[in-house]
Amino acid sequence: MTNEASRPASPETGQDPPRRDEDLAALLERLLAQVPDRTQKDLAAETGIAYPTLNAWMNRTRGTSRIDPEKLRVLVEVFRRWGVRTTPKEFFEAVGRPVPGPSGDEREARLLKLYRQLPEARQRALLKDAEAMLQVSRIV
To answer: Among 11, 53, 54, 59, which is most buried by a count of CB atoms within 10 Å?
Structure first.
């Protein structure tokens, strides 16, 4: 029997299992270590988060329970642009918050991906259904 800390990497991804015991400081430190050419200052500049704020999170001198969810999503986006694999779930768990559903952009991207996989006739039918749903929502 293996415990959480000694569980092997996931065979599907080759990645380590998620670290559920990581706080935001540990998560940021681990992710920044994956991009050695980037610094806290780079992260602050790219995310629009003030450097003193980011530094305080990393030094655990400022609480993280009230961080704006959009700031967490921006951190995810920046790390992904830098080639680091991470998820919003990791960030929300690191600050002890429930993971919200997908953002509007993520829902739109998913809808578009599904739409593009449909045959043309089904795309037309989906558009008609969406237009009908819109009409009904205007009445209600």
So the answer is: 54
Q: How far is CA 127 from the centre of its chain?
A: 29
* Assessment of whether the complete model's pTM goes beyond 0.70: no
pLDDT band at 138, cuts 50/70/90? confident
Taking the CA atoms of 79, 55, 15 and 106 in sequence, report the sign of the dihedral they define: negative
The DSSP element (H or E) to which 128 belongs, if any, is helix 120-139
**pLDDT tens string 113-126:** 999 999 999 999 99
- Cβ 15 vs Cβ 26: under 8 Å: no
Q: Could you tell me which of 32, 34, 33, 52 has the C-alpha nearest to residue 43?
A: 32
Cα–Cα distance for residue pair 23/21, rounded to 1 Å: 7
How large is the greatest C-alpha to C-alpha distance in the chain, in angstroms? 58
Report whether 72 contacts 88 (CB < 8 A): yes
